[in-house]
Amino acid sequence: MELSPQKQRTRRAILDAAAGEWAQDPAVSLGRIAATAGVGRATVHRYFPDREHLRSALTSDSWAALHAAIVEAAPGAGPVLEVIDRVVSAMVHVGDRVLFLFASAEGSPSDADTSVANAVDELLVAEIERGQREGELDATVPAQWIQRMVWSIVYTGLHATGDGLVARHGVDDLIRWTLRGAITAR
Question: What is the mean pLDDT of the chain?
């Protein structure tokens, strides 16, 4: 069943609110999510019958948003370090979704989300392997190690913005600087 534009906006507002709230506190109430979304709790329940339906929808939506952002960063177009910079910016742009995925899924996608999550990882690993082949990235460590470094440093940067340690608008540069120091060829 296709939702009207108004219902799509309401659903999106609820998902965005849930991402922001659950990224900070996985135990936050549905009432708090409803308030953040600017709707009543009953409206949340009309779209998502219970907490688990909302969490499941948000998980799928978050993986899809992350995948779309990374695809938009144009993997394969240009020098690898520039591509990774764009991927980092894409991840920061969907930051609440990344934080939510870490907080709720602990890095393990559901069966329904495995293909999208794998596609996200494959895009990043392909760039890392290209960078290792071309001599831009350290080839002495496994590509999956560097991939985990990217995830970890992005997560750390996003978490630091939530803690007030770094401004959200400046975290991209700090993440990129830290990451380049860790992964570039020596």
Answer: 91
